[in-house]
Structure formats: C-alpha cells, structure tokens
Specification:
This protein has five helices and four strands, in the order βααβββααα. The chain has about 150 residues and is of the alpha+beta class. The protein has one domain. The two termini are about 35 Å apart. Pfam families: YhjD.
C-alpha cells in the first residue's frame, strides 16, 4: 500500500498532484526497466529474432518516455517539484515540494511492482487480466481451460 506522509499542511497538495508524483515514480522506473531489457535482449544472443522483441520493448520505452515528459510538464504547471527519489529494501520514496509545502510519498515494493506490471503490460499492448491474478489462480485458470 502506498503511504503518503506530508510534512506540512495536507490541504496544500491535491489528490491529483499526489497522483502525478506516483506516476512520475512509476514511469521513471518502468522506462529504466524497458531500456535495460531492450539492451539485454539485443546483447544476449539467446533470441533467434531479437529485433522483434527489441521493437516491442522499445515501443513500450517510447510510450513511457512520452508519458513521462507529459507528467513532468504537469508537475511544473502545478508548481510541484520532486526533490529526492530513494529506494531501499522496503520500497520507493519521493520527497517533493508543492507551492511551498514539503511532502513525502512512500510506496512499498509489493505494491510498486504490482502497479509497474499492470502499467508495463498496458504499454506493451498486452492483456491486463493476467496481471491481477496471482500465480496459483493463474495456474488454476489454465488447468480449467485445457
């Protein structure tokens, strides 16, 4: 679960602005993952047609890049600045300043990874239903469909 800790007045930051901070964090990490995966696919030598997979992952990276630019524009238009992004064994944390209000958003790894997977599937044009099922439910559903 994401926790948002505001160090000043909470009425100074809207839910939409908090959503922008969250999107910034997710898009930043997703973009890095797509770029890394694209490099690994290209260099691995394990794929017969690496260009096909690189094209798919690269298209996801391009989408996240465009969306990240838009989120950055929105952050600026709301006078909202991400001052620090950190990660540790618990999750990802961002400190931000919005019209003079300092705040902090923390998202635990399980929640962050789950939302990353849902978004990554969407950016790659994949069905999102499977991302909601856990492994046991997925295995059971596959067994029932055979």
């Amino acid at each position: 679960m994401a926790t948002t800790k505001l160090k000043s007045h909470t009425e100074g930051v809207t839910p939409d602005e908090l959503s922008l901070v969250r999107s910034y964090l997710l898009l930043t990490y997703i973009h890095k993952v797509f770029e890394r995966d694209c490099r690994v696919i290209g260099k691995s030598g394990l794929f017969k047609t690496p260009q096909l997979y690189m094209e798919l992952v690269s298209s996801g990276a391009k989408k996240t890049s465009i969306m990240l630019q838009e989120v950055k524009r929105e952050l600026a238009s709301h006078d909202l600045k991400i001052t620090t992004v950190r990660q540790d064994q618990r999750g990802v944390e961002a400190q931000y300043m919005c019209r003079g209000y300092n705040g902090e958003m923390s998202i635990l790894w399980p929640v962050f990874r789950r939302e990353m997977m849902v978004r990554m599937r969407a950016y790659l044009g994949l069905a999102t239903e499977l991302s909601i099922l856990n492994r046991e439910e997925h295995a059971e559903q596959l067994a029932l469909s055979i």
